[in-house]
Amino acid sequence: MEGQWHKDEKLFWLSKDYIAEFVYGGIDGAITTFAVVAGAAGAGLDTSIVIILGIANLIADGFSMSVGNYISSKSELESYERHKAVEYWEIDNLREKEIEEIREIYQKKGFEGELLEQVVAVITKDKDVWVDTMMKEELEMVRDDSKTPFNTAFVTFLSFVVIGAIPLLSYVLQGWLGLPEDKLFLLSCLFTGIGLSVVGILKSKVNERNWLQGIFETVALGGIAAALSYFVGDVLRGWLG
Description:
By secondary structure, the protein is mainly α. 82% of the residues lie in helices and 0% in strands. 29% of the residues are buried.
């Protein structure tokens, strides 16, 4: 397993701790941008407008998602530190009560008699160990030092923009490659399907599920979102046209 992750780290130039952020940022980016493209295609908008709407969506939604991720991650760390400070205060001011809580925790785990008292004595001997034990066993809170709020937000934004740009490729490259305008949306569907398939494989690795199921879920979700957007764009074109 370690060797497999090491290989993945080299392949995707991301720490394994950030793969989940990359996956979900990428899925959100691809699906929302593809929905914009599909809606514009359904409305019969010009290529330049599709590009403008798509890029605006990439930057605005990507930034919004990354900021939300940053605030969420930072709030979790701040909450952990607040509860940890409370535990230190309780140990200093309510020592006997906290000792009894440690005893009750390990009684529930099956410790008893002299062994229980030895465990309690060892844990309460070191204040830091004592607090860490209370955080994990009583509050069920564990600090994740493998990720930082800024890095989490950065990876989310990066994946949103990189993967989210895939639905726009055919439109952006049209002038350079001479792509026929009536095939641009079809090519966008193809490119997006490939991109979502790759992200689906990564998602299945994160969730430890079958990779075919991961591909199906992400591609199906993108397809449904695009179909709805295309339908809305087509209906609005009829009403407003």
